[in-house]
Amino acid sequence: MSYPQPPEFPNNGQQPQQPMGNQPPPNFGQPPAYGQPGGAPAYPQGPPQYQQPAYGQPPAYGQQAPYGQQGFGQQSFNQMPTDPSQAPLPGASMGQAMSRFFKKYATFSGRASRSEFWWVALAFMLISIIPQIMLYMGMSQAVKEISGQYGAYSFPEILELVAQGGSAFQTIEAAISSSGLYIAGSLILGLIGLVTFIPSLALSWRRLHDSNKSGAMIFLSLIPFVGSIIVLVFYLLPSDPAGQRFDAVR
After folding, report:
1. Number of domains in the chain
2. Where does the record place Low complexity bias (predicted)?
């Protein structure tokens, strides 16, 4: 069956139009060709893809580290924040070591570096030299006073007489006790020991903490002969970061 043709209209200088129904469908969703103007730029479809950072590498800038994973530069163990004053001071000078020694007079928590410990030990050894000299001079003076009664004795012989006891011991003891130098030296040494007993014990306790040892290990020195040697070896050990477990929590 034939259909009638639509009437033709005169063309007044316009381009011919394509018949209805034969027009190609519009081109939607395709980006324009590279370098050609016109059209909106194409955007990637779907949610953006994020690349998982490689193991051992920090997350990209501006992104939060995955939950439960260790951040960059953090320690491998999770610990509560501690007081910075509890940390040891490696390479401390004698002045710094003495300052921390008296500031932490009775502080048994925290740690103390080897330099803190040995500078204090050296300082008090030097301080005790003067009263020890006074003690020796006082004993020598007492020996000279009794040498007329018992003859000329050397210092070891005097000690042997003291060990034997009897009248010689009483005479020597009385002579030494009456010496002003001996009395002054004894008082100074006793005062130094009284003032430094607690802070010295606390410093030794913290030094053991710094080597990741319990401070109670100091009581090993009570074992005859070998105990003091064992504790001395502990004092010589280097710092161990695991000793942070002995720091006081803020």
Report:
1. 1
2. 10-21, 30-75
Q: Residue 92, SS3?
A: coil
Instruction: Using the predicted structure, report yes or no on whether residue 211 has a pLDDT greater than 50.
Output: yes
Question: Look-up: residue for tokens 């005097």?
Answer: 158
- Report yes or no on 164 lying in a domain: yes
- Does this model's pTM top 0.70? My answer is no
Nearest to 116 by CA among 87, 143, 89: 89
Contact 190, 131 (CB under 8 A): no
Q: How many CA within 13 A on the CB side of residue 61?
A: 0
User: Could you give the residue ranges of the DSSP H alpha helices within the chain?
Assistant: 94-103, 114-127, 129-150, 155-164, 166-177, 180-210, 227-236
CB neighbours of 130 closer than 8 A, spacing ≥ 6?
188
Range of the domain at 229: 100-246
Residue 206 included in any domain: yes
The answer as to whether 126 is a domain residue is yes
From CA 247, how far away is CA 250, in angstroms rounded?
A: 9
